[in-house]
Write a structure and sequence with these properties.
heterodimer, A: 284 residues, mainly alpha, MetI-like fold, 76% helix, 0% strand, flat, B: 294 residues, alpha/beta, D-Maltodextrin-Binding Protein, domain 2, five-stranded mixed sheet, three-stranded parallel sheet, 35% helix, 16% strand, globular
């Protein structure tokens, strides 16, 4: 993952803040920021349709009326994506390991893993949710749950595991073959090599892109609403339909931002830490 | 000609153009503020034609007719004049002075009907119920149909033996997003399980067929169509009583449109002449035959 060889400076400063040493630079940055956002706000606020848009999207009363209900419904989103994330971490790793198995005898497993990742990365998430959510329960197989929530989470796990399996695979491939050779020469079995040498290194390298996929997953938890459950997006749709005013959508957007931004910053911090460690160690 | 003369002539011409422009402008604004309802006085999306919106597919009994090959319309064809809402729309158009060929239908999904900014339709007729909150964002015409909610269940399932609203409380109900059926469920039925809410009426039907919900709450005329055509293995359990003011469908128009009062006048004369009742009789006549859940 350490692709930032082009900077190659052991840079400890955050990229967003850039080089802000000196009062003059800070002053310039502040001025340019204020001017930049002032221009954007001015263009929007002076536009002909702004009064109408403000009424339709930023109604204070409708916001405060709808927010508590939407926030309550958002707990369901949190349950959906935390459950899905836990399952994906395990399932995707199994797929990635399956795909890396050596030898001609194990070809069917490799084929299965390739087919799986191709299929579920190829179908839009929304379709997987529809097909599983309505199709699987309609089979009326005994012992198979027909809860929309179950099938919604299953669909998300299947789709996102396909992505995350590829992330894991990239991580596994990035561990130098000499690591495996060294482990085997120490007497570790193939399974032990994988368990104690390859996977731990691979997982550490792929944590940032993995979290990136989870940010996507958190937003897609709203798609589960299509098959019935009332989560935050559905609750806001109900409120929009009741008032013919779009403000509840802004409340939902705010809630999603409140959970995704901390995760995005955490990911950035992990990447920065990784870069620091690698440049400090002098490897690569 | 001497330069001065040219200048004078030019100035006079300019003055004439400006005067003409002003004259035209003031005439136009006079027309749009007058309460006249003749076709050339109406504030229309496309001059000389009436543009009516509804969702696609348009379902019976609200719309009828078979879409011709290559038509964008599915299930029903609003251009046919068949089905309750299509017939009402053409009757209103006729009262406003439009020929049948002047009427044009456009697809307007429910959420598009109330978006801010300019509208793609003169009025939208799509089983939209009037509520005071909604009337803050759009104009509604007067009622063209007073509606009751009904309950559908699969034949042979326990919900079909319900006789009262209290009997329904323990079941998982499903509704379509944006409908007042949802409001009726949460305000008046108050079920113990959270209702499922779907994007489209077809999705609600899928939920029932997959046994993910025990019953569908939907307006009564649609309930007749669902049980007759879409899910023959389902039956109407009953219709719900009106609570408070009767719920009614209105046409949706842009807020502050001068067309609204003209559509209301047209509807009023259709009501007093008995035309509206006749159309209702023709397309929604089986309304009376569902028992009431008390």
């Amino acid at each position: 993952m350490s692709v930032d060889a082009e900077t190659g400076r052991g840079d400890r400063r955050s990229r967003i803040l850039g080089d802000l040493r000196g009062a003059r630079n800070v002053g310039i940055a502040v001025t340019s920021t204020v001017v930049f956002f002032a221009v954007i706000v001015a263009v929007i606020v002076t536009s002909a349709g702004w009064p109408e848009v403000r009424k339709a999207f930023f109604d204070r009363k409708i916001f405060s009326d709808s927010f508590p209900e939407i926030a309550h419904a958002f707990l369901l989103n949190i349950r959906i994506f935390i459950t899905a994330e836990a399952l994906i971490l395990v399932f995707a790793l199994a797929i990635a390991v399956l795909r890396g198995l050596p030898g001609p005898v194990l070809f069917p497993f490799r084929l299965l893993a390739v087919l799986y990742t191709d299929l579920f990365r190829g179908i839009p998430t929304i379709l997987v949710i529809y097909i599983l959510g309505f199709g699987a329960p309609a089979l009326q197989l005994s012992g198979v749950p027909n809860s929309p929530l179950f099938w919604g989470v299953t669909a998300l796990v299947l789709v996102y595991s396909a992505y995350v399996a590829e992330v894991y695979r990239a991580g596994i491939d990035s561990v130098h073959p000499s690591q495996e050779a060294a482990a085997r020469s120490l007497g570790l079995s193939r399974g032990q090599t994988l368990r104690y040498v390859i996977v731990p290194q691979a997982v550490r390298r792929v944590i940032p892109p993995l979290l990136n996929d989870f940010i996507g997953l958190q937003k897609d938890s709203a798609l589960v609403a299509l098959i019935g459950p009332i989560e935050a997006f559905r609750q806001s749709q109900i409120d929009v339909a009741a008032t013919f005013n779009y403000t509840p959508y802004m409340a939902t957007a705010l809630l999603f931002i409140l959970v995704t931004i901390p995760l995005a910053r955490f990911t950035d911090w992990l990447i920065a830490r990784d870069r620091r460690r690698q440049s400090a160690g002098g490897a690569q | 000609m001497r330069p001065k003369t040219i200048l004078l002539l030019g100035a006079t011409a300019l003055l004439a153009i400006v005067a003409a422009g002003c004259g035209g402008g003031s005439k136009k604004s006079a027309a749009s503020t007058s309460s006249g309802c003749s076709v050339d006085q109406l504030n229309l999306v496309h001059k000389g034609q009436l543009t009516i919106g509804t969702d696609n597919p348009a379902f019976p009994p609200w719309f009828g007719g078979t879409p011709p090959k290559g038509s964008m319309w599915k299930v029903s064809d609003p251009n046919s004049g068949q089905g309750f809402e299509s017939a009402v729309a053409y009757a209103v158009a006729g009262k406003l002075g439009f020929k049948k060929s002047d009427v044009h239908w456009v697809v307007v999904p429910f959420e598009q009907s109330f978006k801010p900014g300019s509208k793609s339709f003169d009025f939208d007729v799509n089983q939209v119920s009037f509520t005071p909150a909604r009337a803050n964002s759009v104009d509604f015409s007067d009622s063209y149909y007073n509606v009751n909610q009904a309950l559908i269940g699969l034949k042979g399932t326990p919900i079909t033996s319900a006789k009262t609203i209290a009997d329904v409380k323990g079941y998982k109900l499903g509704v379509q997003i944006g409908t007042t059926s949802y409001a009726y469920v949460t305000k008046n039925i108050k079920p113990s399980k959270q209702p499922s809410v779907y994007n489209t009426s077809s999705d609600v039907n899928s939920g029932l067929k997959a046994h993910q919900i025990d019953g569908i709450v939907v307006d009564l005329p649609t309930a007749f169509y669902i049980t007759a055509v879409q899910i023959p293995q389902a039956t109407i359990v009953g219709q719900f009583p009106t609570v408070g003011t009767p719920e009614h469908f209105g046409m949706v128009l842009a807020k502050g449109n001068n067309l609204t009062s003209c559509v209301d006048k047209a509807l009023a004369s259709l009501k007093s002449a008995g035309t509206l009742a006749k159309i209702q009789q023709e397309w929604l006549s089986n309304k009376a035959s569902a028992p009431v859940l008390k």
